[in-house]
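User: Before I run my own analysis I want an independent prediction to cross-check against. Here's the chain; please return only the structure tokens and, at the end, one sentence I can use as a sanity check.
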Amino acid sequence: MEAIRLDAQWIDYLLIAIYFIFVLGIGWFAKRGVSSSIEFLLSGRSLPAWVTALAFVSANLGAVEIMGMSATGAQYGMPTMHYFWIGAVPAMLFLGVVMMPFYYGSKVRSVPEFMRKRFGTGAHLVNALSFAIAQILIAGVNLFLLGTIVNRLLGWPLWIALVVAAVIVLSYITLGGLTAAIYNEVLQFFVIVAALLPLTIIGLNRVGGWEGLKERVSSDGMLGAEQLSSWPGEQLSGFSNPVLSV
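Assistant: Structure tokens:
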């Protein structure tokens, strides 16, 4: 199968350049408010609630979620949505409503530091190592996905795309710390929503709407029909209601 390539024009590169200028510009402007480790690591504990909330949501709209969940949806169908309403959403609500007041009140700079104050150095070490390993793996997957997309669409070599992405991210974080990272998450939120909404509408329109999509998926035999069932576990639990069957 021939690899997909986008016949990029000057306008495509201009839009990419403008986006990266905004990203680096946010880091540059955030730099003016950074004069201590608290401001660099915690934004001085002064970010507006709406900014923090949007950044919190945007953290679950990265390359891993968009590309990974799209691929999982194509493979398994509607059950993929349970990752969010059973897994991600309750976890985010629990963290924001229950755990964040403890973190904020303790004046710590990180979760591992909170673990040290609450449970001692052993828990601190285990939590710090697990966080570090997880973040390295997540960052690697995100960079690889970004490099793969740029390689397939713009034809850039994979290693060049990886280096450019890493340099840009390191640049704005080094300049503005957490403030730059948070405001870039907010920018990313609006860019992703502005792209995904019309993409979804156009995609559904091309297959004949929701009914057309169901018809095409169902035509793939029994496997296609199973993909349309949001909760195949109904057959095991005996409950016809998807919520009660959980």
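Sanity check: The CA atoms of residues 42 and 97 lie 19 Å apart.
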